[in-house]
Amino acid sequence: MSNELHSPAEMSEADRLTIAAGPTHGIDLMRRAGEAVAAVVLKRYPAATHVHVLCGPGNNGGDGYIVARILAGSGVGTTIWASGTPRPESDAALAAAQCPVKPRPLSDFAAEAGSIVVDALYGAGLSKPLSGDAAKAVDTATALRLPVVAVDLPSGVSGASGEILGKAFRAEVTVTFARKKPGHLLLPGRERCGEIVLADIGIGDGIIAQLTVSTFENVPDLWLREFPVPAVDAHKYNRGHVGVFSGGPSATGAARLSALAAARCGAGAVTVLSPANAMQVNAAHLTSIMLRKADDSVDIDSFIGERRPSAFVLGPGFGVGEKTRKFALALLTSGEQRDTSTRIDGLVFDADAITSFREAPDVLFQASRQPDAPALVMTPHDGEFARLFPGIADDVATSKLARARLAAARANAIIVYKGADTVIAAPNGLAAINSNGAAWLATAGSGDVLSGIIAGLLAQGMPAFEAACAAVWIHAEAGSRFGPGLIAEDLPRALVPVLRELVEARTGAP
Hints:
This protein is of the alpha/beta class. Helices cover about 40% and strands about 15% of the residues.
């Protein structure tokens, strides 16, 4: 699948395996990479007065020499500005030797309005802050507002974490090869990449299959095979039942948003579990969503025994404190006393359910590790993540991807680490980075809808990691399509066309 994400080290290994398998040589991969970049430059910028190719001393620079040779051969005014010289007898040295354009020192880099820059300095191979002449080149290109085409990754962006290492180019287009890297999707690096063009340079799927890839771009190909589609003889009782816990009389809206989203996503039945003093408030707003009193664990046990729900949402608007902790632990340990017909398949803890364990996170984590515990999905934003995983959140040396993985392993839960670059991580190390995030989703109640989508998919039997990934993508896609003016109440209905297209793709319908 082309949705695998490779770390810089994994991509280097893919290069090595390709070369070792023969008959491809390193220079062949370099030529194909350079050709792909040159094709983008010629197509996108036919009116450019001049192209400035910035070449580093490594393989990224080798790609740049090939780009310069092709552009010059096509009649484009081309200047090479080099940072150092390639290692003797390396592929980059061979590419430089075959280029008729003689390099000038990067320290003298100057450009003019109307020209463009090809950044072939360091790409994903940079491991320390950009400095010296390279940093000055970034300043020059930025000051002149020159369009930048980046080779592999804008120099200054970490391919592993998306971190900006000192300074970084802001590319209009980034041409990368075989597979994307985490740094293409994680912020703030993603904002520096511009449009990402994925070029085939001859690293085949068979080579990729030899690598142990555990990071993916969150696209439908990752989870579509598990996406639930009702059978011909489906009825509401075999499409899953979701229970959503409501807060008190003045905090009921969040639960209703979650409940409606779960229903929209295909759960056959959804019940709002309400405190007695909020029953009338909830009843005034619910139609297809059922309503039931739930003031204590006895009420919860009764509901589970009678209605056999498949999934629950706890947290949105529920309140922070001892009651939330008791309900959460009761749900996590309910399987110990129940037969298989009344065991819960999945739980979604968000908002107050997360914050309620900030003083005693290990109590939650120990409960989630019990053999009969339901699959747990937690959906923290930055603040909630820091409350539940303070040691991990404070480690500034790790990427968002690494932090999400560490948290998932510690909590034995699927972690949906929310943001514009949401990361979904599983305890076994699998992770996905979402790439279709929408700024329109930055509105109160949006996260409650996401929790409901996850629960609705869990209730229909979708595995927890895939359900979380699907929900994040669907949620973002609906937000993007709706656009300006979006509020959380719009989202459940905005899901409909997205869900229809997924069902059609899953079933092969036209």
